[in-house]
Predict the structure.
Amino acid sequence: MVCCCLFSVPFFCQLHDVDLSQGKIPPNATLIFEIELYAVNKGPRSVEAFNQIDKDGDKKLSELEISQYLKEEFARDGKKRHPSAHDEILADIFKKNDHDGDGFISAKEYNVYQHDEL
């Protein structure tokens, strides 16, 4: 499946004087992009991802489960990170997703049942 989409960027949202191989984008120009979608994959908020993180199968994610998952993902991508990055990301995940403040992220809080449509 290939889906095409055209959109334009108004001149006031653009960077001006960007050097291109054919010259520069003049001020007050409207840029038009053509984007092709080649594939749609399940994102990180899938039921499968939730179940992969939920090691004990209790349908809620603990700090320990998410921490272990983050460590595995960090090791897999091999990028160098400051040691505090893990703790900051973990805290941010719970701040944004533990809506009831119980110290766990439920399937509902993880948002596995709601989908953003294309």
